[in-house]
Amino acid sequence: MNQHFFTMKTFVLLFPVVLLVACQRPQSKSDTQETTASITSDSVSPGPSPVSVDTIAAPAGLTKLGTATGDLDKDGRPETVIVYDSQRESKDEMGTERELHIFKMKDGKWELWHKSLGAVMPSQSGGMMGDPFQQVTIENGCIVLHHFGGSREKWTNMHRFRFQDDDWKLIGATVNFGAPCEYWTNFDYNLSTGKIVYEKKTEDCSESAEKPKTTKISKSFTHKLKLLPGMDEFKPGENEVKLPGLEDTFYF
Length: 252
Known about the structure:
The chain is mainly beta. The protein is about 0% helix and about 45% strand. The chain is built from one helix and 14 strands. It is globular. The relative contact order is 0.19.
């Protein structure tokens, strides 16, 4: 894990973030992580009652952390995504490794479609905040992974993966970090178009912590990648973008 990401930029916005990429829609966050969050999203075609995701047995040695159900391939039928803790030590020694399993319904049963390692952060990657994994959701046909961490300075990130060209590709990333009475920074990166929206708000609490004086700047940039990162090789927080004309560098 890029050390700079967790030391220099480990903080979180304390207000709702406006997501500007294709797979966004309003969301709410729980102050505490649910061990087996179950989220259903995206309408599907009417038909026979779906088989419960509870019929998907966790593989030996894996513990379920979060679940989401929704249409991921535009066939009008729901898929299911489950995030598991593997209880295996991660290669970077940041806790236990996580697995993401994607299931499709076939002949009335859930069958494993794809398994991925790396896109869900290890169990101790959240710094003093502990386990960084918040939840997995399905939004507008995309798998969205939510992470959170830091100490006084906190960070959140959201990564959006879409099935295209017979692979799961990262198409969007939102990174937020900051600390009260200092500053809050938000990067929203649409990898499909290359557009980056940068916002930074500074806070001066010298006169009042409840009503700090604030200044805000907002800029847009374009940073188009030759190839979209695939889910299987993606490592959150280890991908650098330097913003032209600014001292800020962010890691998604």
